[in-house]
Amino acid sequence: MQTVQWITFGLAQSLSKTTVHFFPSAAGIAAPYPVVTRLSCFRAGECQKSVTVEGLRLQQPDGIVIDELFPFLQEQSTGLFGLEMTLGCGQPRVDLSRSNCFVELRNKSAVTKFRPTMVQTASDKSDCSTGMIIKDAYLNTSLVFVNGTEQEMSPGLSGSGAPIFQCSSVAPLSILEVVASESALDKIEPRQFGWGMSRLQSLALSEPIASGGACYLMYRDAVSRFPLSVRQL
Amino acid sequence: MAELIRESGERKETMENPDLKRLRNEHFWVSSGPFFESALFMVPTSSGCPATTLLQCELYNTEGECFNTLEIEQATNQTGLLELAQLMEACTVESGMRHAQLKVRHSGDLTMLHRIHCRQRACFLSSEIFADRGEPFAIPVELEQGRSHIFAVINPEQNAVTVRMKLLAGKRKPEHTVVIPPNGTRIIGVESIFREFQPGEGKSLQAYLRVSAANDQRLFLQLLEGSERSGEFSLLGGLS
């Protein structure tokens, strides 16, 4: 079976909802072949549940509400949890690698939609991208590490903002949100912009995260703390 | 700190700097009033790059006319910022908004991040959402009373493009078509175009906007969601 896989996270919080949207596509194929998706939810070292969902079709977008698929997440209000998602098509010669996926985090007053990390083989791994830490009256930045593998992950950081985050290792099948150190942030010279003062620093991973893991910069609303933007690092 | 080298109201016909020949082109949908203000962060990517890097920026109005150009020499040891408001005074207003396409050509030693903010909120928007080679792209849209979506489409090419937008809502697939001139942009109010799909009070409808270009061109896309009270759009979020 041809498959494509993403590794990401969702948010289990009262009055919030996590939905994943798939758009299974294959170059040059218009037929709506059946597509199967398998979703696994993990946190704190264990895979809590895996579910196979049928009914998706090639070239047809569709969504799955994670809180309905894994209702125990809302009951526990666990905060962030890891998600591994695999799309598969039984048809031979259907290359799903052009498929798209959005993760949507929503509550009554905010929404963010972002594209999760596609799991790649070691030879396909691209260079680390660079991101930005910002702290101001609107946004706070945190780092989210997702480890969907059975091995411990020890990410390293580079860039002027690296000392702002105290990174520890990430246990297997776990998710770790690292909040910026207030004392380190206070040492950054604030800069005046049209919207007020902001503290800025650049940040990158010192080496790519192993296949089956992912790292995101998450920008939370400074008042409500709800995530407003998520960007792969 | 970004140093403004040149700014003019006329379009340069060529980008003649040899250092910029191997460059990366990036396309941003940007806005300056009345609802949001755009800002572009220029984040250095590595310590091994030259002390400064050059960026060439062109701003195109919705009809694809270049109304401003500038070059920036950006130090690569510090994050730079370009607040677009100061560069968009000559931009025409379309659909009640002053919005434009910003093309940036640079050496790749920088990561560009687009942030918008309104009075209550700020978020980062991706510049990497696109439909390519005539293949459709689908974006989730949750319709609900009191919410509205602004869908922005950029035509980065030198040819006009016909853009087909299908709202996939259950078994119904209404279509809307728009022609965008070369280098032009359009914003489409999803709820006003597909008014009959607005669900009743207290209900929501999960739909998808399926977008494709009629002639194999590339399109850059962005979708903002907001709440609407007395004609005011209050930002809830976008595609990051």
Characterise this structure.
The complex is a heterodimer of chains A (233) and B (240). By secondary structure, chain A is mainly β. Chain A is 6% helix and 52% strand. Chain A contains three helices and 17 strands. In chain A, the strands form four sheets. A five-stranded antiparallel sheet of chain A has the order 4-3-6-1-9. A four-stranded antiparallel sheet of chain A has the order 5-2-7-8. In chain A, strands 10, 12, 14 and 15 form a four-stranded antiparallel sheet that branches. The longest helix of chain A has 5 residues. Chain A starts with a strand and ends with a strand. The mean pLDDT of chain A is 92. Chain B has 240 residues and is mainly beta. Chain B is built from one helix and 19 strands. In chain B, strands 1, 2, 4, 5, 7 and 8 form a six-stranded antiparallel sheet that branches. The longest helix of chain B is centred in the last third of the chain and has 4 residues. The two termini of chain B are 25 Å apart. The interface between A and B is large, with 42 and 40 residues.
Give the topology.
The complex is a heterodimer of chains A (233) and B (240).
Chain A: E1 2-12, E2 17-23, E3 34-43, E4 46-57, E5 62-65, H1 66-69, H2 72-76, E6 79-89, E7 100-106, E8 111-114, E9 117-118, E10 130-136, E11 139-147, E12 157-158, E13 174-179, H3 182-186, E14 191-193, E15 196-205, E16 213-221, E17 227-232
Antiparallel strand pairs in A: 1-6, 1-9, 2-5, 2-7, 3-4, 3-6, 7-8, 10-15, 11-13, 11-16, 12-15, 14-15, 16-17
Chain B: E1 3-8, E2 24-31, E3 37-44, E4 52-60, E5 66-75, E6 80-83, E7 93-94, E8 97-106, E9 110-117, E10 122-125, E11 130-131, E12 137-144, E13 147-154, E14 161-168, E15 175-180, E16 185-189, H1 190-193, E17 204-213, E18 219-229, E19 232-238
Antiparallel strand pairs in B: 1-5, 2-8, 3-6, 3-9, 4-5, 4-8, 7-8, 9-10, 11-18, 12-17, 13-16, 13-18, 14-15, 14-17, 18-19
